Amino acid sequence: MKIDSGSTAWLLTSTALVLLMTPGLAFFYGGMSRAKSVLNMMMMSFVSIAVVSMVWVVYGYSLAFTDGGGLNSFIGGLGDWGLVGLETSATLDDGTGIPSLVFVAFQATFAIITVALISGAIADRAKFGAWVVFTLIWVTIVYLPIAHWVWFFGPEDGEGGWIGAGVGALDFAGGTVVHINAGAAALALALVLGKRKGWPREPMRPHNLPFVLLGAGLLWFGWFGFNAGSALGANGTAAVAFINTLVATGAAGFAWIVVEKIRDGSSTTLGIASGVVAGLVAVTPACAFITPLGAIVLGLVAGAVCALAVSLKYKLGYDDSLDVVGVHLVGGVIGALLIGILATTAVNEAGADGLLAGGGVGLLGKQAIAVVATIAYSFIVTFIIGKVLDLTMGFRIGEEDEVSGIDSVAHAETAYDFGSIHGGGAGSSSAAPVGSAQKVEADA
């Protein structure tokens, strides 16, 4: 098939936008961390790009998006390992006119950010080397199978992954594959590594709220590629996904700060940034299947519920450092399930009618199956991976290193120069001893 230059240009742009989301996530998570661990937090996102991009080319794409023969319902094959069989001029078989390699690159960025999302739950206390090994293992045996279950479709109806092609559950851009998957994994790792020293007695506030807002803005910007790019074309479906991404996100940010105002008496910058991300998460699976008015409803529900859900960690006792569970797991579940209520084929004939469009509860049941299966598989397998790594190479840093600051211990760097605080007056070139800087960061 001839390459469609317009759709190809849009998907190339979307791929770059989605890749930008991971550095955006680094700023979002980095700002929410304490000063002594901001570099480590950002490094965990960047190394996800390094590891997953290589995995994706060598075997990741093949296992996620090719026919697996007798195991095709559960995993793909290795026929396209190394991408050696994909010609530069070859297009997808779906009639979009998109070069196959562009689609490969687009999907790689989804795998990258899914892994990076998990890191927020274990801020301040994970060994960097163990995180790198975890990234390699997790993307292989958790992300790739789930991506195949949901997004691989064979040439005939019913052929492909057991959730998407088999059950018929809908996930346009990654509610199950990315957000529920990452959120369940985050909960499992938080339980494996345990609580940070001093949590929840000591306040562990974000050290740089402008970073948080910058990260949220970059995520929102990149998310248009995430959602509208998943239409695989410059078309009407992309337009629906685009406007829904805008309004659901705005509604969620607004709902979050309203909850804050009622509950705490103040609306905060951290709150609106968190609400924005919650809205982006929730609209992801539904963005091409609901109307803009439906997207507003979805966003309001997601923002309000996630604002309440982030406090669950204090009631249940798990230390999810940066609220990955409350935002991504809960937000992803809301978005996936509300498809069963708000979806309408009047927006997208490739979707299905939900409860409010006269489709009954059938679609809602399919969505529930997808949600439960994703949570169960991701949580159980991630917990096992985490436990094995903890028992073999150790996953958590030592208590003394945690107190002094993981940045200086793991990376021999600190994010901020505190030299002027320790005797370096105007015009002085002397810097404080490293130990002094670490002491200041340890108190941050």
From TrEMBL:
Where is this gene product found? Cell membrane
Q: Compositional bias of type Low complexity: which residue ranges?
A: 428-437
Sequence intervals crossing the membrane: 6-29, 41-61, 101-123, 130-152, 172-194, 206-226, 238-259, 266-283, 289-312, 324-347, 367-386
Q: How does it sit in the membrane?
A: Multi-pass membrane protein
The lineage's top-level taxon is Bacteria
Mainly resides where? membrane
| The keyword Cell membrane belongs to this UniProt entry's keyword annotation | yes
- Keyword vocabulary terms for this entry: Ammonia transport, Cell membrane, Membrane, Transmembrane, Transmembrane helix, Transport
A single cellular component GO annotation:
plasma membrane
Known function? Involved in the uptake of ammonium/ammonia (NH(4)(+)/NH(3)).
**What range(s) does the Ammonium transporter AmtB-like domain occupy?**
9-416
Q: Name one GO molecular function term.
A: ammonium channel activity
SUPFAM superfamilies (alphabetical): Ammonium transporter (SSF111352)
One Pfam family name from the record?
A: Ammonium_transp
- PANTHER family reported in the protein's UniProt record: AMMONIUM TRANSPORTER MEP2 (PTHR43029:SF10)
User: This protein is called what?
Assistant: Ammonium transporter
InterPro entries per the UniProt record, alphabetical: Ammonium/urea_transptr, Ammonium_transpt, Ammonium_transpt_CS, NH4_transpt_AmtB-like_dom, RhesusRHD
**Region called Disordered, residue ranges:** 425-444
Q: Residues of the signal sequence?
A: none
Keyword S-adenosyl-L-methionine recorded: no
Sequence similarity: Belongs to the ammonia transporter channel (TC 1.A.11.2) family.
Subunit organization: Homotrimer.
- NCBIfam families hit by this protein: amt
Task: Give the organism, scientific name.
Answer: Actinomadura craniellae
